[in-house]
Amino acid sequence: MNKVVPAHNIGGYIPLIDGPEKVSGRAKYTADILAPNMLAGRIYRSPYSHAEILDVDISEALKVPGVKAIVTGADCDKTFGVLPIARSEHPLARDKVRYRGEPVAAVAAIDDATALEAIRRIRMKVRELPAYYKSQDALAPDAVQLHEKKPGNLERDVFFELGNVEQAFADSDLVREGVYNCPEVCQVQMEMHAAIADYDAVRDRITVHASTQVPYYVHMMLSDILGMDMSRIRVIKPHVGGGFGCRTETLNVELITALLARKVGGVVRTVVNREETFITHRGRPETDIKLRIGLKKDGRITGVECEAFQRGGAHSGYGVVTILYAGSMLYAIYDLKHVKYIGKRVLTNTPPCGAFRGHGTVDVRFAFESLLDQMASELGLDPFAVRRANLLHAPTFTDNDLMINSYGLPECLDWVEQASGWKERKGKIPRSNRGLRKGLGMACSHYISGASKPVNWTGEPHATVKIKVDFDGSIVVMSGAADIGQGSSTILVQSVAEVLGLDLSRVRVVTGDSEVVPKDNGSYSSRVTFMVGNAAIDAARNLKAVFVRAAARMLDARPEDIECLGEVYRAGAQDKGATFEEVVVEALKDSGTITVTGNYSTIPESHGGKKYRGSAIGGTMGYSYSAQVVEVTVDEETGVVTVDKVWVAHDCGKALNRLSVEGQVQGSVWMGLGQAMSEETGYHEGLLMTGNMLDYRVPTIQDSPPIECHIVESNDPHGPFGAKEAGEGSLAAFLPALTNAIHDAIGIRYNDLPVTPDRVHEAIEKHRRAAARGKSNGGA
Amino acid sequence: MARLIELVLNDRKRVDAVPDNLLLLDYLREVAGLTGTKTGCDGGECGACTVLVDNRPMLSCLTLAASVDGRKVETVEALGRDGQLSAVQRGFHEKLGSQCGYCTPGFVMASVGLLRSNPDPTDDEILEALGSNICRCTGYVKIIEAVKFAAGLQAQGVAP
User: Of A103, A112, A255, A645, which one has the greatest count of Cβ atoms within 10 A?
Assistant: First the structure.
């Protein structure tokens, strides 16, 4: 008898199940879908930063032959927004425009050239208002309000103090303060925003293809904006070319395209260009941070005081959540007792910011790990020793009630220290001639595995997965989880195959069509592997129970005696058993087509506490941890910084797919590198000056270092097979690890990002001049 | 004005009337229906539209359709034999050189162009050949591995 063993599908290097489509050009993204009679949509955008709209004249535009419909703010008085408490945005501006590039009108025409011609003929009459491009200007006492309901242009003011920070500082051996600036950065996902809306006037139904991370939000917002019952709407998410957070929110492009399609009674496709995609960025807000930390001589942190101002842009968007994350996620990485946080989310006349990979945590982590490094050297302590002096011990709850059940940071620290040769090499790398100096820097970061409470809290399970099995014996997994390139569909297939002991080839996955798949809360905050993975495991177990009952009947045995070997079900080791196909045939006799559902709900302990307003933000079922060492070479003559190598260790609980985890971790580190070294948006009086990938400097392959990745598995007790998130937590640590390495190389600290060659050069020159002055004055 | 062009597109002879100002990218996507070639920027920034013209990687967004008259054009859809993935396609799939997949056709075609002219590239030659393509997912680490893996497969006789 051949030995039958269940197939194992967890923990290996598994290529993405939709990889063949992507490498052969068969994968269809929204802009690739062509329908006969499709009209081209195009958006007219405000040339003003802040103005009252007196008139939008579309009469000349309507005369252009081939124009089928034009919509303006007059066509929709509803608002949208990702947070139920902050839906402040009209798809097309009414009454006021609040940033340059805000949509004001849109045209559907027979082709793009015709639509463009019509756009050129739209005229807008306004009364201009003072505009504010910096947080401080918008907060000035005499500033004009952007939104009627937001006095002082403050979207949200957060304050909490847990413990007694002043006392903690008084008890410290060293207290230091640092001021940091992190400019606005954008996701720059490779696929530009696109939507196709197909309105069926006969049945009053609409189908929308959207390049989104959360089809469910698009569905809800379409219903609100169109005033249509949700049952009349179908949302399809084709392949999506990256998101990194910008597509968590429903975007105006999707809503405007739907408004056009309904008005024209047909199909409209809007593909915005790269500059418009930058304007619709929903990126990371410019953040100004003032941070104070107190330390004991042995490196223990006594107290922390953090003040963060975020320039949020012209609408609420995700703002409240972002400013809360920046405070709550001070916790959950080190053992902190006395913490004060002041956060201000400011409304300005710039395009709205949103959730960007590492949402809310990155800039504050940069400040924190930079100041810690500076204070460690002042105390003569090794940066690793300072982290080790402040470790948490899982399981535990933080002072702000965040639940931690697994904590692999110590192992992360050990690995990067050892792999980088830190002990032997730190401070001892020989200086080469030609003014090239080398340095090593380290830092840590962490992230959530999905917000424990979804933004739209409905009381339903956090995630639901269905599985269908029919006469053909294929296992069809149905999920609303949006694969945007992170590999979520692959994880679902792996999870189901693992539980059933079947080869991956037995399992198919259907996602991205609201007509077929269960609702999902979407691909954001690194929730999918954890929440949807657990729901998939639950569904697969339910399916297995169906098969076991059928096998028991066939084999004349009790269900509890049935052993599932994947392709064979048997009653005891001597039993020849029944094949998987035979079991399926038997099981179908009960109900016909088999469908099972699996759910996952987070536990209340993970929902965060009630110690301050908004303290639920930051609550999750499991935190990932990351430690990094960065090695740099700084050219003192040119200011060019080269990252020679990055060592990163990431605690993802359990690597379900090592290939994916490595890819996610490397991608995160690299995205941190972009923010740290070259990326920032620039505006001139509200006009975007960096609306392309040459002025907005995304690192090329030639700018990018080798990234050696080590996976730490802390096996979270709640995670699917022990897993936690892998796609965000390693981003933040790169930024401070880089600036700490530069400091190690040339003795200069950079608190303002990005660290571009001109900034480095300028600081080196300033340093030299100061040193020369010091010498001529007889030395300091 | 329009003109008649005759080209070999993915091994098939085609004759099309194209406006003088039609970009090769739009010709491929909207006229020939080959949507594997992607638009990722407003012109020459990202490399997602890279195709081969007479075996050389070209940005189809900066190339007029009229200019490929009489030439051989290959897109990502042309690769692979008998339904199997080509060496470069296997590299990007099996080594995870592709995550969201949007930049992938451009990277794949640039890599095919490289390996056809230089079957055993050094690291620096790979970086140079792919220096004008942008990927936002991978951090490029696994793209380099993918190209090296593909070079190995090509050495065993698999077409790039």
Answer: A255
* pLDDT for residue A601: 97
Inspect the interface and report whether the beta carbons of A663 and B39 lie closer than 8 Å: no
Q: Do B141 and A707 touch (CB under 8 A)?
A: yes
Per-residue pLDDT of A560-611, as tens digits, reads 999 999 999 999 888 899 999 999 999 999 899 999 999 999 999 999 888 8
User: What pTM was estimated for this model as a whole?
Assistant: 0.97
- Which chain B residues are closer than 8 Å to A239 by Cβ? 100-102
CATH for the A33-129+190-242+247-279 domain, from 3.50.50.60, 3.90.1170.50, 3.90.245.10, 3.90.1200.10: 3.90.1170.50
Q: Count Cβ–Cβ pairs < 8 Å, chain A vs chain B.
A: 176
Res A609: pLDDT: 81
Q: Print the SS3 string covering A19-56.
A: HHHHHHCCCCEHHHCCCCCCEEEEEEECCCCCEEEEEE
Domain boundaries, chain A: 19-26+454-601, 33-129+190-242+247-279, 286-452+608-769
- Inter-chain CB proximity A31 and B39 less than 8 Å: yes
Q: Of all helices (H) and strands (E), which one includes residue A711?
A: strand A707-712
Give the distance from residue A243's alpha carbon to the nearest chain B alpha carbon, in angstroms.
9
Q: Do B89 and A188 touch (CB under 8 A)?
A: no
This complex has an ipTM of 0.98
Q: Which of B41, B99, B102 is closest, CB to CB, to A29?
A: B102
Residue A114 binned pLDDT confidence (cut-offs 50, 70, 90): very high
A779 — pLDDT class (breaks 50, 70, 90): very low
Residue numbers in A near B85 (CB within 8 A): 20, 23-24
By Cβ distance, the residue of B89, B103, B141 closest to A190 is B103
Domains of chain B: 2-78 (3.10.20.30), 87-155 (1.10.150.120)
B146 part of contact set with chain A, CB < 8 Å: no
The reply to whether B78 touches chain A by the CB within 8 Å rule is: no
Q: What is the DSSP string of A277-294?
A: HHHT---BPEEEEEEEEE
Task: Write out chain A residues lying below 8 Å of B131, CB-based.
Answer: 700-702
- CA of A297, closest CA in chain B: separation in Å? 39
Assign domain A286-452+608-769 one CATH number from 3.40.630.30, 2.60.40.420, 3.40.50.150, 3.30.365.10. Answer: 3.30.365.10
End-to-end CA distance of chain A, in Å? 86
The predicted-structure confidence for A613-626, as pLDDT tens digits, reads as follows: 888 899 999 999 99
Residue A87 phi/psi, 5-degree rounding, is -90, 85
CA A319/CA A322 separation, integer angstroms? 5
B16 interfacial to chain A (CB closer than 8 Å): no
Q: What is the pLDDT of residues A202-230, one digit of tens each?
A: 999 999 999 999 999 999 999 999 999 99
Domain A19-26+454-601 fold is Aldehyde Oxidoreductase; domain 4 (3.30.365)
Smallest Cβ–Cβ distance between A24 and the set B40, B48, B85 belongs to B85
Residues listed for chain A: 780
Token reading at A326: 């920046």
pLDDT digits (tens, 9 = 90+) for A705-718: 999 999 999 999 99
Select from A18, A112, A116, A190 the residue whose CB has the most chain B CBs within 10 Å, as the one to mutate to test that interface: A190
Q: Which amino acid is at A300?
A: R
A499 has pLDDT over 90: yes
Classify the C-alpha dihedral B6-B8-B12-B16 as positive or negative: negative
The whole-chain average pLDDT of chain B stands at 97
How far is A677 from chain B, CA to nearest CA, in Å? 14
Q: Do A22 and B101 touch (CB under 8 A)?
A: yes
CA distances in angstroms from A28 to A15, A119, A238, A313, B39, listed in the order given: 19, 29, 6, 33, 13
Would A19-26+454-601 and A286-452+608-769 be classified into the same CATH topology?
A: yes
Q: Residue A2: pLDDT above 70?
A: no
